[in-house]
C-alpha cells in the first residue's frame, strides 16, 4: 500500500485523474439523487397538493367586498332637505391583519392615539362593535375624522398594518334639534341592530336608523347592498374589479312635515317644555310634530361620548323624551267636545238640552261638590255655550246620564287609549278609563264620581298630544280616523317622480246625524269667536275663522277639587296648558293640539302657540309640490 | 473531436455545448424575469446588460490559459480578502455590510470569493501529491475558512455556505480520504448547536420559521407559505407566462431575486421546473466532463469544484422556495435578478471554457 504521507512521493497524474473521475461521477450520482428528491418535493406541491394550494392562491387574490348603498335623502313636504349624506372619513381596523408584533390591539390603539384623538368612549365602542364583526372584517374605530387627522394618519400609514382611513357618507341633519323627534338619527350599528336586519345586506353598512323616521323607514332608506369581486394585492389594495353588482340606493323620502310650520311652532313654544302636533284633517298627514326641548341628532351620528350623552340625558326638560308621541297628559277640558258629541250622537242630549250651572254639582246621595271654574256658576247653558265657556256642570250632568261604559266606547273610536299608528316608533297609548280597565288593573269597582270627572277629561284620562291632534282631525273631518302619517311620498332609486303615500283610514266613525257634529264645531267656534269664549283673543287679525278648545291638565290637586291660582304654586307644579284648534272652520285644513307644560291656563299659554301654527300653515303661499 | 466543425469555432475557445446550455438558461431567465418584475422592461434590460457583460467576461477569461490564471490566483485571493476586510470597515448595504461602493458601480467582494476560494485551493493543491496529506488538508481548510468566516460575519449565510462548499468540493475531488471527510461531516454535525449559539437573531428566526412557518403566517412565515402556494398552485402545466397571480399580486416577496423560482414554478408548472433542473444537471455534467479532460491537476480540481458548486446553488434555492430548506440568500443561478452573482457565475464558466480550450486531446 502506498503511503500518502511521504513527502517525496511522486505525483502520479494518471492516478489522480482516475481518482478524480471516480469522485466526480460519484458526486454527480449524489447530485442526481438530490435533484430527484427536490423534484419529488415539487411533484408533491404541484401535483399531490395542487388542489389545496390552488384554492389558497385563489383566496389570496379574490376578495368579495360589499358595496354600500347610499342612504335615501329625506325632504320635507316642500322639498327642503332634512337629512342628507355628506362625505367624511372614518378609521377602520381589520383585527386579523394587525401584526402580532404590535402586542395586540391595545398597543396599536395607544400608538394610533398619538395621531388621532381617541377617547375612552371610542375605544369602548370599538371593543363593543368588534364582537359583531368577523376577524377579517373591517371594524370602525372612529368616525368623522378631521382633515388634520386624515392627513396625519396618511403620513404614518406604513406603520399601521391593518388600519386604514375609509371614505364614507355621513348622515347630516341640517335642521338639528328642530326635527330630531320626527326624523330621528342614524348611529353605529350594534349587535341588537344586526339581529333585526338582513345581515348580508348590512355587511358593509356601519350605521343604522336608531329612532324616528330613520328607524321606522330603515329598510327603504338603506337600499340594497351590492358587491364587487376584486383582485387584491398583498396589502389588500384593489388592483382590478373582476365583477361588480351595483348597490341599489335607498329610497328618497318626502315627509309631510312642513319645516316652516315646525319652526313656527318651535319658536312659539319659547323656552317652555311642551309639544305641538298639527295634522291635515283631509288626509291624516302630519304637518308639524314638535317636542321641546330636543337635542342635536348630529351628535349621535358618528358616535356620542358617554359624557355628552349624560349631559343630554340629565338636561332640564328631558330632551330625549318625545312628548309629542310619548308624553302622557291629562286632557282636561279638551276632552269636552268629544264627550259632548257622544251625548248628542247617542241621544242622551240634544243641541237644545239645557243645564243650570250654579257653581257646584252634586251626585244624588253624595255630598261632595264638583265645581265649575266660575265660582258663581254659568247659569242656563246648552251644549254650544257649555263648550264656549267650558262649563263643567253641563258635562258632569251629561257624563252621569251617559255612563262610563257608553262614554268609553264612543271615545275609543277616536283612538283615545290606543296608539294612533303613526309611522315612527315609541308611541304611548294614553289611557281611556273603563269599568273593565279599573277592575283588571286596579282591582277596584268603578265609582260614579269617577264618571263625573271623566266627563271633563280628568281622573284617569291620559292622552298624548298626537292622539289629541288626530282625534281633533277626525272630529272636524266628519269622523274619518286616519293612521297619521309622516311619510308623504317616496322616490325609490331609478324612479323619476316621487310617489305619494296616503295615510290609511283606520276607521270611519258612524255618523248618526251630521248636525250633531256641526253643533260641536259650532261650540268650538264660539270658544274663539263667541262673546264669552275662553279663547276669545286668539283669532285677532286672523285671515281665517278658527275653532278651538282650551284645557288644563292638573299637575297638583288642591283639596276640594279647587283650582289653584297660578301664583300659589311653584312653576314646576303649575298646570299644563292645553289648546286644540282647527281652521278654517268652514272647511278645516289643519287640526292642532298644543301642550305647554306648567303653562297654567290653556287660553293664555297654549292658544297663542296654536295660532302661530295655523298662520304658518294657512297663510303661506302654496309651495312647490315635491 | 469536433473536427467536423469549421476551424473558427474553436478559435474563441468556447465549449459550444456549455454555451448553448447557459444561453438557454439565461434566455428562459429573462422571460421569467419580465413576468416576475411585473412586466418591467427596464428590469429586463438591466439584467440583459449584466448578462451581456458577464458573457464578455466569460469570453475574455476563456482566452486566458489556465496556467496564467493560476499565476493570478494568489493575488486574486489576497485582493478578495482585502476587500472583505474593507467592506467590514466601511461597507454599504441594508443592515448588512456586503457591498463596496465604487461610485459608478457597487461590488460584492464575497461574490469574488466564490471564485477565488476554489481557485486558491486548486492552486495550492496543484503541485501537491494527491490525495492530500494532513498538512495540505489543514492548509486548505485555513484557505477556505478565512473568507468563509469573514463573509459569515457580514452576515451572509448563503454566500458563506457557497464559498465553503466550493473549497470542500475541491478537497473532495482531490481525493481526500473518506475517513477524513466523514470526520469533518461528523464534526460539522456536532458543531450545529454551537453554530446556533453564534448565529445572528435574524438567522435564528429564519431557521425557526423554516421549521414551523405556519406559526407566524403573516410575519416571518409569510415568504415560505406564499412561495409554497405559488409553487403548488402552478400544478403540472403552470398558469402560463405572465399569468401567475401569486407573483403579480405581490404575494411573493423578493419575487424577482431569490424567489424567482416560485414565479417560474407558478407560471410554468412542474414541467418548467423539471426542464430547468434537467438543464442545470446537463451543465454540471458537462462541467465535470470538461474537468476530466483537463490538462493538469489544478485545472481539473477547479473545473470540478465549480461544477459541483453550481449544484449547491440549485439545491439550496430550490429547497428554500419549496419550503424544505431554510431561507438563506442563495440566488437561482443565471435567472435571479442581480448583477454580481451572474457575472461571477459567468466568469466561473469562463474559467471552465479556458480549461476546455486547453484540454488534452488524448486521454
Question: How does this structure look, described?
Answer:
The complex is a heterodimer of chains A (626) and B (363). In chain A, 35% of the residues lie in helices and 20% in strands. Chain A is an alpha+beta fold and 626 residues long. Chain A folds into two domains: 64-91 and 108-153 and 161-255, Alpha-Beta Complex (Penicillin-binding protein 2a (Domain 2)); 259-306 and 322-618, DD-peptidase/beta-lactamase superfamily (Beta-lactamase, 3-Layer(aba) Sandwich), CATH 3.40.710. In chain A, the strands form seven sheets. In chain A, strands 2, 3, 4, 5, 10, 18 and 19 form a seven-stranded mixed β-sheet that branches. In chain A, strands 12-11-23-22-21 form a five-stranded antiparallel β-sheet. In chain A, strands 1-8-9 form a three-stranded antiparallel β-sheet. In chain A, helix 15 (383-389) runs parallel beside helix 21 (514-529). Chain B is mostly helical and 363 residues long. In chain B, strand 1 (100-101) and strand 2 (106-107) form a beta hairpin. At the A-B interface, helix 1 and helix 2 of A face helix 7, helix 10, helix 12 and helix 13 of B.
Radius of gyration of chain B: 20 Å
Identify the CATH class of the largest domain in chain A: Alpha Beta
H/I helix tally of chain A: 23
CATH homologous superfamily of the largest domain in chain A? DD-peptidase/beta-lactamase superfamily
Helix content of chain B: 55-70%
The number of distinct structural domains of chain B comes to 1
Named at the architecture level, the CATH assignment of the largest domain in chain A is: 3-Layer(aba) Sandwich
